[in-house]
Amino acid sequence: MRQTGSPTVRRRRLASELRHLRERAQLTLEEVSRQLGWSTSKVSRIENSRVGVVPKDVGLLLDLYEIGNSRREELLKLARDARKRGWWHAYDDLSSEYSAYIGLEAEAASMRSFASAAVPGLLQTEDYIRAVVRAGLVLAPPGEVEHRIEVRMARQALLSQAEPLCLWAVLDEAVIRRIIGGPVVMRSQLKRLLEVIDLPNVTIQILPFAAGAHSAMSGAFQILQFPEPADPDVVFLENLTDSLYVERDADVYRYTVAFDHLRAKALDPDDSRRLIAETADQLG
Predict the structure, then answer these.
(1) How far apart are the C-alpha atoms of 196 and 123, rounded to whole Å?
(2) Which of 6, 40, 82, 280 could form a disulfide with 107 if both were Cys (CB 3.0 to 4.6 A apart)?
(3) Neighbouring C-beta atoms of residue 96, cutoff 10 Å
(4) Which of 82, 105, 124 is the last residue of a domain?
(5) Parallel/antiparallel/unpaired status of strands 166-172 and 110-115
(6) What angle separates helix 7-24 from helix 96-107, to the nearest 10 degrees?
(7) pTM to 2 decimals?
(8) Of 227, 195, 231, 204, residue with least CA distance to 3
(9) Do 124 and 48 reside in the same domain of the chain?
């Protein structure tokens, strides 16, 4: 069964519901903050799911918006569920951005991923993860590398559980050509791709160098789609020092169109498999 109950997703849904209720009540952020004695920034952070919200505060908002009966109980339950801890909270030293991403990933029904430099985390072997993490954490404290490996390997269960995540990954050819961790590690990683490409919930395409310029020259991204209509798609972007979530409908649509162009330009799955196998054999 899918790892449901992600507090990150619940908080995001609650924030959206509270924002819609405020707008329906024709109240501004300033009016709500004034009537409840809160700062405007507190109300804004709640509605943007930047902070958690205790059920007591949700109750005060629902009183103000005159919401009662079953709808009230439904939202209060959502508030309580949003405060539960996911499996990743056992790792207390994870950054808030990484925890938020894992929470979204854990409840996603599908993911469309474009990788420009490295194999996506859900498809990496342990040795490949070690090489990538070591390269990125040049100032890492003792034990941090193995810690990161453990978390990333735990995330990979999403692809093999009873209701698995559906992953469609487009990999720039550079991803399979760059020798990360040495030839032995890289060959093993390519063999791993050849194994997962046979899973019914995984599609892998290679975007060849010959394709030239493409719609994602700016870099890698993931589009997460959720099973509940109340949870709109979200795009995740990451760089060396920060992470960004794109949630505006118009912006998410642009990434969706960009991904459609990428997979249209990429080799089909069978040709992609052949290229991955050839590259692995060259490393042999």
Answers:
(1) 8
(2) 6
(3) 9
(4) 82
(5) parallel
(6) 90
(7) 0.75
(8) 227
(9) no
